[in-house]
Amino acid sequence: MSYLSRLAEYADAMFHGSTAHRSAARCCRKSENDGMEVLLITTRETKRWTIPKGWPVKGLDPHQAAKREAWEEAGVKGKAKKKPFGYFTYVKTLADGHKVPSVVQVHLLETRATRSHFPERGQRDLVWLPASEAALLADEPELKGLLGKFSRRTAFR
């Protein structure tokens, strides 16, 4: 079954506001050749390539929650932009097996440092790639689009 077919069965719930809201960090850094690289991580369960994302955190704005997820899931420290870069949707499988349509608000995060010791170390694979290559690895079509969009624009001025 295609990705869009899986998402389509949740269209009614999405149109009626029954979605989970998540925040994500679009981590970027300068590469050795002065280009830009973006971070992809694998999910813990299915090992699909994605970006750091998580549930809302009480007391934190979405960009702050995205920054926190980048640290916890990938050891990335940096500055997240307040304005959303974009959104993507996917179906989140919860621990109890239920599936929830999710809307993810993505924030650009300028990577200033990476650490080798972080909360989810060893639970995920991490890779830094040019955005066009990262787009090929992502499953979600809207995330692919955000990765491609990123490669055509400078994130931080």
Descriptive notes:
The chain is α+β, with helices and mostly antiparallel strands and 157 residues long. The protein has a single domain, classed as Nucleoside Triphosphate Pyrophosphohydrolase (Alpha-Beta Complex), CATH 3.90.79.10. The protein is 27% helix and 36% strand. It contains five helices and eight strands, in the order H-H-E-E-E-E-H-E-E-E-E-H-H. It has helices spanning 3-8, 11-15, 62-74, 131-137, 141-151, and strands at 20-30, 36-42, 49-50, 53-54, 76-80, 86-93, 99-114, 126-130. Strands 1, 2, 3, 4, 5, 6, 7 and 8 form an eight-stranded mixed sheet that branches. A hairpin with a 6-residue loop joins strand 2 (36-42) and strand 3. It is globular.
What keywords describe this structure?
globular; Nucleoside Triphosphate Pyrophosphohydrolase; single chain; 8-stranded mixed β-sheet; 8 strands; alpha+beta; 157 residues
CATH architecture type = Alpha-Beta Complex
Strand content: 35-45%
List the secondary-structure elements in sequence, H or E: HHEEEEHEEEEHH
What is the CATH class?
Alpha Beta
Amino- and carboxy-terminal Cα gap: 41 Å
What about the largest sheet?
8 strands, mixed
* Overall geometry: globular
Task: Give helix % range.
Answer: 25-40%
Radius of gyration: 15 Å
Give unreliable regions as ranges: none
CATH fold annotation = Nucleoside Triphosphate Pyrophosphohydrolase
Total beta strand runs: 8
Q: Structural class of the helices, strands and pairings?
A: alpha+beta
Mean pLDDT across the residues is 87
Number of domains: 1
Number of helical segments?
5
